């Protein structure tokens, strides 16, 4: 028997501007939920052609980008470049320092690129590792059905109902699932004990929890779970007009201080000053930033 987690809070992610012309709904990294270790930020982004996230730095974190619609290009100062399409993911480790650009790929109909980006803190001992990327294509991601086909689970990272994901995607242990529940469906997803966890609603109306603790939320809401317990229960009412879809994430909390200034995350204030100095002087990991400009960022309409 598993012990369902109770709900700590549920709230709507408000839309705001970010990057150049992009719109995001940020639910982690706001006053509602800040430094929910190991999670630093969660953005549900919508980026139309002509907008995007041109050349910018990072240090001390990992990012997970999951594309729900469209396609997006990325390029960095080390010569890495590529494209992720709908259903693909990119795991990026900034480590000691990286400068890169993330832009929607132009399309004929003008539709935006839509997706999720999660910032995950790195353990202090790994904050100085070399930057790296791991792309996970949609076809590489295991997908299973449970509850007589009423529930579909895309296992991005972790384990669900005896099926494992691709391994070694991130340094910090995280489990990530894209779950769709049809009307009348119900799912119990086990999660590691002691990990922090949340669910972000992408579509429909989904009920989380059991009994008096149950909370029903619609699209753009984030549900933060209590740490106690080892599973999350979700269901969609029989009379619902559409399926519920949500992004379920759990991660191992890091026993360390979080000091953040924009894209730089360290464990001390001195570390932030050093990161800013290193970026400004093109040193200690940012040497390749000197004079670099991404090709995909040059088309940005300022």
In order across it, which strands form the biggest sheet? 1-22-19-24-17-14-13
Give the radius of gyration: 19 Å
Main sheet specs? 7 strands, antiparallel
Morphology = globular
Order of helices and strands: EEEEEEEEEEEEEEEEEEEEEEEEEEH
Helix share, percent: under 10%
**Beta-strand content estimate:** over 45%
Q: Quick one: how many beta strands?
A: 26
Oligomer: single chain
Span between termini:
56 Å
Secondary structure class reads mainly beta
Low-pLDDT sequence parts = none
Average pLDDT reading:
94
Number of helices: 1
Write structural notes for this entry.
With 302 residues, the chain is mainly beta. Helices cover 4% and strands 48% of the residues. It is built from one helix and 26 strands. It has one helix at residues 269-280; strands at 7-12, 15-18, 22-28, 39-47, 53-58, 61-69, 71-76, 81-85, 89-93, 98-104, 113-121, 132-136, 143-146, 151-157, 159-160, 163-164, 174-181, 186-190, 196-203, 206-208, 215-217, 221-225, 231-235, 244-251, 259-261, 264-266. Strands 1-22-19-24-17-14-13 form a seven-stranded antiparallel β-sheet, with no helix packed on it. A seven-stranded antiparallel β-sheet has the order 2-3-4-11-6-9-12, with no helix packed on it. Strands 5-10-7-8 form a four-stranded antiparallel β-sheet, with no helix packed on it. A hairpin with a 4-residue loop joins strand 13 and strand 14 (151-157).
């Amino acid at each position: 028997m598993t012990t369902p987690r109770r709900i700590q809070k549920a709230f709507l992610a408000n839309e705001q501007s970010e990057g150049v012309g992009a719109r995001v709904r940020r639910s982690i990294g706001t006053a509602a939920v800040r430094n929910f270790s190991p999670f630093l930020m969660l953005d549900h982004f919508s980026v139309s052609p002509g907008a995007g996230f041109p050349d910018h730095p990072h240090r001390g974190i990992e990012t997970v980008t999951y594309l729900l619609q469209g396609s997006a290009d990325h390029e960095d100062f080390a010569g890495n470049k590529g494209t992720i399409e709908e259903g693909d993911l990119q795991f990026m480790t900034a480590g000691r320092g990286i400068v890169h650009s993330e832009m929607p790929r132009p399309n004929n109909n003008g539709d935006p690129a839509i997706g999720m980006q999660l910032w995950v803190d790195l353990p202090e001992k790994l904050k100085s590792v070399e930057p790296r990327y791991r792309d996970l294509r949609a076809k590489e991601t295991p997908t299973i059905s449970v509850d007589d086909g009423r529930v579909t689970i895309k296992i991005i990272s972790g384990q669900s109902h005896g099926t494992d994901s691709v391994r070694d995607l991130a340094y910090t242990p995280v489990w990530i699932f894209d779950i769709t529940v049809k009307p009348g469906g119900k799912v119990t997803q086990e999660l590691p004990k002691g990990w922090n966890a949340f669910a972000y609603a992408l579509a429909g109306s989904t009920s989380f929890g059991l009994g008096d603790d149950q909370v029903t939320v619609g699209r753009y809401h984030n549900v933060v779970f209590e740490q106690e317990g080892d599973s999350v229960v979700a269901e969609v009412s029989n009379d619902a007009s559409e399926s519920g879809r949500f992004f379920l994430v759990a991660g191992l909390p890091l026993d360390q201080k979080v000091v953040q200034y924009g894209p730089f995350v360290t464990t001390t204030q001195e570390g932030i000053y050093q990161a800013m100095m290193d970026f400004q002087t093109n040193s200690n990991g940012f040497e390749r930033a000197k004079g670099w400009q991404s090709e995909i960022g040059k088309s940005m309409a300022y």
